From TrEMBL:
Organism: Chryseobacterium gambrini
Protein name listed in UniProt: LysR family transcriptional regulator
Database matches in InterPro entries: LysR_HTH_N, LysR_subst-bd, WH-like_DNA-bd_sf, WH_DNA-bd_sf
One Pfam assignment: HTH_1
Coiled-coil regions listed in the entry: none
Residues of the HTH lysR-type domain: 2-59
Domain of life per record: Bacteria
PROSITE patterns per UniProt: HTH_LYSR
Lineage: Bacteria, Pseudomonadati, Bacteroidota, Flavobacteriia, Flavobacteriales
Assigned protein family: Belongs to the LysR transcriptional regulatory family.
UniProt keyword terms in alphabetical order: DNA-binding, Transcription, Transcription regulation
Gene3D superfamilies to which the protein is assigned, alphabetical: Periplasmic binding protein-like II, Winged helix-like DNA-binding domain superfamily/Winged helix DNA-binding domain
Length: 302
């Protein structure tokens, strides 16, 4: 009989495109992900992915299987969550959605001390807004506001998108070129450096480049890593550039492990919001999570 977790793992690989990101999403080891996938392929009798470098490209049969299981699996997960809530009378369970990097940088350290049960979900902001509206999630952390009349958004902080680099990057040379030769020469200098990016999210780089240079970047990063926190760790090696939210590398900049290279001609800021349904049975638990975020990130002028 097929193991339901094999389908969960298959779905995570399909959505993230790599075994590493799937493991991060599911909070299991990469060998565990590989084992689930090989077991499922052996069970169904055909390959579900073609392995191209580090990317997992779904085969035609893989696409068919994904389309077949997505909706039933989502319903089962919703039943599982609702059943857990109904059977745990004394200890409430709330579901919170946010990006992976935000969780690692803020809430992760407090999870073991929470006085209630917690389910963390990672996904795209549009998907999380839909799940919040449907009652699958109870709270989301998002820079994007939805339009549903059932959801209220509370701005609580902001993030600035900045250009950072390893400590060996020649920041002084960049500043001389920018000040003496202008923005076009500065752009060329930047393009000739080594760049880091992530497979799932290039939005920060695109927004920063369009705001400062008037067009999307016409180059691709040299190194694609699992997530933004991975980028910051790689930059501590001394070389390379990346565009990331400032709160992800604040400590590294203060410690001199990473350099703030440029904030741009115009600051690029995103307002962060709490999103929750107007009617909820978990207001006390939601307020607790909100308080932890304010403690970690600080309530800034927005």
């Amino acid at each position: 009989m097929v193991n339901l977790e094999w389908y969960r793992t298959f779905k995570a690989i399909y959505k993230t495109g790599t075994l590493t990101e799937a493991a991060d999403t599911l909070f299991i080891s990469q060998p565990g992900v590989s084992l689930h996938l090989s077991s499922l392929e052996a069970y169904v009798g055909y390959k579900l992915f073609d392995r191209t470098g580090r990317r997992m490209i779904p085969t035609e049969r893989g696409k068919v299987l994904y389309n077949a299981i997505t909706e039933p699996l989502a319903k089962l997960e919703e039943v599982e969550k609702n059943f857990q809530k109904s059977t745990e009378k004394l200890t409430p369970t709330i579901s919170v959605g946010m990006c992976f990097e935000t969780f690692q940088t803020t809430l992760e350290q407090y999870v073991s001390s929470l006085p209630f049960n917690l389910i963390i979900s990672f996904g795209e902001y549009r998907e999380m807004l839909d799940q919040l509206d449907k009652g699958i999630l109870d709270l989301i952390i998002t820079p994007k506001k939805g339009v549903s009349p059932n959801i209220e958004h509370e701005a609580f902080s902001s993030e600035q998108i900045i250009l950072v680099g390893g400590k060996d990057v020649d920041k002084e040379q960049f500043e001389i070129i920018l000040n003496e030769k202008g923005i076009e020469h500065a752009e060329e200098w930047l393009k000739n450096e080594k760049w880091y990016g992530t497979a799932g999210d290039m939005e920060h780089l695109f927004q920063f480049w369009i705001l400062n240079f008037g067009h999307k970047p016409n180059f691709r990063p040299n190194y694609i890593v699992p997530n933004l926190n991975s980028i910051v760790r790689c930059l501590k090696g001394g070389t390379g550039l990346a565009v990331v939210p400032d709160f992800l590398c604040k400590k590294e900049i203060e410690n001199g492990e990473v350099q703030l290279i440029w904030e741009g001609e115009k600051p690029l800021k995103n307002t962060l919001h709490f999103g929750c349904r107007k009617k909820t049975n978990y207001q006390t638990e939601i307020d607790h999570i909100k308080q932890l975020f304010r403690k970690m990130m600080g309530k800034e002028d927005i």
